[in-house]
Every structure is written in C-alpha cells, then in structure tokens.
Amino acid sequence: MTTQVQATPQESSGGHWLPVRPRLVLASAFMLFLELALIRWTGSNIVHLSYFTNFVLLGSFLGIGLGFLRVGRSRRQPYYSPIVLAALVLVVLMFPVTVNRDTEGVLYWTSLHTEGPPIWVTLPIIFAAAAAVVMGPAELVGRCFPELPRLEAYRYDLVGSITGIAVFTSLSFLSAPPLVWGVIAAVCYLLLLVPRPRLPYWLFAVVPALAVVGLLAAESLTAGALWSPYYKVTHKQLPYDIPVHDISVNGIPHQQAMPAATRLQIERQYALPYERSSAAPREVLIVGAGSGTDVAIALSKGATRVDAVEIDPKLRELGGTLHPDRPYADPRVTTHVTDGRAFLERTDAKYDLILFALPDSLTLVSGASSLRLESYLFTEQAIEAARARLKPGGAFSMYNYYRESWLVDRLASTVQAAFGHKPCVDVVSTAGQQAVITAGQTPQAQRCAAEWTGAAAGTPPPVSDDRPFLYLKDSTIPPIYLITLGLVLAVSLIAVRAVAGPYRRMRPYADLFLLGVAFLLLETKSVTGFALLFGTTWVVNAIVFGGVLVAVLAAVEVTRRFRTPPLPVMYGVLLAGLLLAWLVPDAWLLSLPVPLRAVVAVTVAFLPIFAANVVFSKRFADAADPTTSFGANLLGAMVGGCLEYLALVIGYQGLLIVAALIYLGAFALMPRKAAVLA
Fold it and tell me: Could you list the residue ranges that cross the membrane (predicted)?
C-alpha cells in the first residue's frame, strides 16, 4: 500500500476557519442530509417525483461526482449551490404538480389527471437542479481529501454521511416540517463557505440561504399541512351537512374521513366484504386503516376485535382526531403503525375477515427502483400469508379503484392461485374500475352474487416477491423511463466533460467506476430485500441505508488497521458472497423467527457489501489522484442507479447476476500493478 504523508496544520486548514477533519465530517453530513431532504421535499410538491424519486437520487450522485471532479480546477467558493437551491424552492412552490380530482384518467404509475408542468419538463429541471445543489457540498468534501491520507479522508466522509442520515431520520421521527430542513441547510452553508470577501459571501450565500428559510417557512406554516415520514399531508373540512374531512397526500386526494353510515350509503363496495362472507366477522384485520372509516364500518358490522394496520403515523393521528365516529377510541380497536405485509408475516393471530382497504400508497420506497410502499402486499406470496391467518370459515377481501380491467383480473387471478378456487369479483362501477375481490378460506365460506368468469385473455400473471410490480402490465421498462434515463445519461456526459475536462483524466479509474455501478445495485437489492423481510417502513429504510454505510466504514477500518488479502482474493470473497445471496431464498428467510431472520439477513446482505468495500478501499488507497478516482466511483453509482430499472424485467434477484458481471469487469480492468501491490 502506498505510503502517504500527513498534511501540515497550515495545509490542513485550507484557508478555512474549521480544521480539516471536523470540516470534512460537517460537509459530508450536510451532503447526505441535503440529498435526503431534496428527495423528500420535491416528491411532496411534484407528484411525478412520488413515482420517480430515483431521478433525484441520480441527480445527487451526478452532483457529488462532479463536485469531486471540480476539485483542483477552481478555487472559487461553490456559491452556485445555495443560489440554485433558492431558485429550485421558488420554482417548485410557484409551479407545483398536483392532481385534479374531477378528471378521471389513467396514468401509468399514479391516479387521476395532473395539473402543472408536464413530466418531460419537470424531471429534467429537477434532475439538473439536484445535481447543481448537491455539487456544492460535494466540492467542499472533495477539497478536504487531498489534505488527509486517502483512507482517513474516506473514513471521515463515511462518519459524516452516517451523521447526516441519523439527523434526517431523527427529524422524520419528530415529523419536522421543511422549515427545519431549510434552517439546517442555511446554517451548514454559512459555516462551510468562507466569509471572505464579505460582499460575495452576503450576496451569494447569506441572502439565498435566508430566502430558502423564508420560502420553506411560508410552506410549513400553511394551515392543515402535516409532515409524516412519507408525505406532506393536508386536510380540510368539506362544506356538507355531515362532517366530512378530505385528506390529501403530496397534492393527491387520498382519503375522506366521514361517518360509517354515510359511507355505506353512498358507496356499496364498503359493505360487500361482509355480505360475501358466509359468517358475520367478529375478529377483523384491516390493512390500510388510514383515517378510520373502514375501522368504523367493521365496528358497525358487529366486529368484537379489530386490528387496524396503518403505515403512516400522521394518517392514523388524523383518524384519531378528525373522524366523526371516533373509531380509534373504541376499546375493541388495536392500532399497529407498521407495514401490512410485515404484520401478516409476524402475527400469530387468526381472523374471521382480513381486509385490504384501498392500500394505494401513492409513493415509492425512497431509493428503491419502482418499489411502492404497498408493492409486497399484492404478490401471490402475500395473499398466501393472508390466507394462513384466517380462521376456519374466514374470508379475505380487497377493494379499490383499480382503473384498469386487466388489473382487476390480475388481482383476482392472484387470489385464485393463493386460495385454490375462484373468488367473488364485484365490479361495482366501470368508471375507474371500482371493484371488490373476496375469497373464503374454502368455497363454502364465500357467497358470490355470480360466478366470476375468469381472467380475460392477455391478463398478466400474478406478481411475485421478486418482481412485485403490480401496475406494470408487461415485463418491460416503460418508454418514459427509457427516454428519461437516456436524457439523464446524455446530460451527465456533457456535464462531466464541461466540469472535469477530457474523459482521459478518468480512464485509469475505469475499474473504480464499475465498482460504483455494481455497488449501487447491491444497495438496491439490500433495500428491497429488507423491505420484504421487515417492512417497507421509513424506519427499516433508514436502518438499511445506515447499515450499508456502517458496513462500508467497517471495511475501511479493517483495511486501514489490518493486512488484508490481495485484491484477487478479495474479489473471490465478493463473488462468493454474491453467490450466497443468490442461493438463499426470501421464502426461507421469511419462515425464520424475526431475531434469527435479522441475523441471517444481515450476514447474507452485508457480506458482499463488506467485501466490495475492502476491494474499493485497497484500490482507492493506491490511486494517484484521490478526488478524480473517488469522483469516477460516484459517477459509476449514478449509472448503477439507472441500471436499477432492469429489475422491472429480470426481478431484484437478477440484479445480483448483473452486479457479479460488472464486478468481473472491474477485476478485468484493474491495473496489474494494483493487483500485485495490494
């Protein structure tokens, strides 16, 4: 390993009032915090980004890579970052993309008709703005790297990243509004940008930072706006003779809290699960309990015990305070704020009726390719888990506005496959395909008005835990993704050339670029795998991202402190870890008790992550140019984010094969000198 000389104290200051180590930690924490805040905030105001959060992530990776590549090419302060952030916040607040409830239509990944700028305008703007905003803190991080030994700099970068995740997770737990995020961003800008000369500092740092705080303060103080870990939740009372509260999330009309008697009177679908069950349900499980109307209906139908599962704590909180029937105050009701699939896998309780009550999350699991919060609820394995939780003679039912007849048939076929017989299928209204699908544990436990004729020709098969994409009719990547990803890559190539100069500067680090590509695929597989095993909640998501960084930090510390095997050996360990992850089936993991499941899942998921980062650490430590090599790795991560969408075709397990092939490519491109010296 190359011997490195420690920078002198004067060199370490870099002209900054903060010493290099705390400055590096602060800048790295700010970089990660800003990335997470951008993903969260833009998705709450631009409805397209509720389904394309990956594009903000891609822009962030591009910005981080460009920030590192810019180091050494300019000594100017990165004032562009706070200026672009202020402009982005202003534009998004002035031109939000919302949903028009009065217009019926079908969007590929969402519901109803949007109002505001079209998707082909908003996505490129958000992508470019996210890259420019995150590029500033990344440049400040990159300037610290030459002042420290390679792995020590990487170590403090990881410590800062973990800190940024911890801070944002804590604010999510506290339901902090965007005003708090803006204040933290402003403080970080003012601490990290050097206040010399004073006039540019005030004009290009202080004024934009204060503008961001002011704009987010105005949004945060809007009447009726609550911030859950998933959504911007707004509500208003409608001007009816009866108490009705309309609840929207991220600008999308989502639920209405109204008396159970009124709901049963105006919409027949809410009564059908009880009419199609052969016996009056006494013990009921409701997944997607939300603001409480379905819970109130179950109580009105004579339920003696109701387990209400809702993933969003703020929706549950609103149900407790706004619903006119006060269902959550009833002693017969027990609330579980968790993921529905995770609850089904963990509980030992048995029910007369299990009801999936309009579980349509309207958002993606952050950082995971096209995985919605409710994706694992509609797989064949999930319906089988629901059947296993029914009492003898019990029934399962789901209802929603499915918007496509093939989607109704797909779900009905899934229920048929899980239960072994045809379910009852009631299409209550062809407008929006309002339908109820009910299946008894046995054919005798259900009472259908008429026999379901079966799925129409061309109906796609049931979805599985490996490809849980209910709303994707064919095993293809939708054209909108292909076009947008192509534009993202084209813009990225131009930006890298403009910022970093000729591509030959990064040519010696082609293997580090591929390591970044493959690692992002590994991270995606970890996020989606843990979401299946432990729930798609924000807590699980935060723990997984934090755990990945801890595994990376552990790899760095092992490489710094101990003599590790040569790179060819570590590549062998890495490929063995990928093979192990491929061989261990999710169904077997789900059958284990939760504590043992956690131990095995962490071992299987983090072994290849640890090995991959020992490989990266050894290679990075001997790189001639630390900022360019690190930037190349980060740009590779952006390309890996694009390749995540292969899961739509090959499934999440297939990403392991793609990652293995890319790692083999990295090994082939590794300089022979690095293989000998490492």
Answer: 24-43, 49-72, 79-99, 119-141, 153-173, 179-194, 201-227, 480-500, 512-532, 538-556, 568-584, 596-616, 628-646, 652-670
Please give the pLDDT value at position 122: 77
For 52, the token pair is 């394309």
Residue identified by tokens 């009921």 is 284
pLDDT, position 34: 96
* 137 and 266 both lie in a single domain: no
Q: Are 154 and 624 in contact (CB under 8 A)?
A: no
Q: Are 613 and 557 in contact (CB under 8 A)?
A: no
Same domain, 324 and 216: no
Asked whether residue 676 is assigned to any structural domain, the reply reads yes
Contacts of 311 (CB under 8 A, 6+ apart): 230, 337, 338, 339, 340, 361, 373, 535, 536, 537
Single residue among 421, 445, 469 that ends a domain in this structure: 445
**How many angstroms separate the CA atoms of 144 and 154, rounded?**
10
DSSP 565: P
Length of the chain: 678
pLDDT < 50 positions in the chain = 1-13, 100-112
pTM recorded for the entire structure: 0.89
Domain shared by 223 and 268, yes or no: no
**Distance from C-alpha of 567 to C-alpha of 614, rounded to nearest angstrom:** 9
List % helix, strand, coil for the chain (3-state, nearest 5): 60, 10, 30
pLDDT at 12: 43
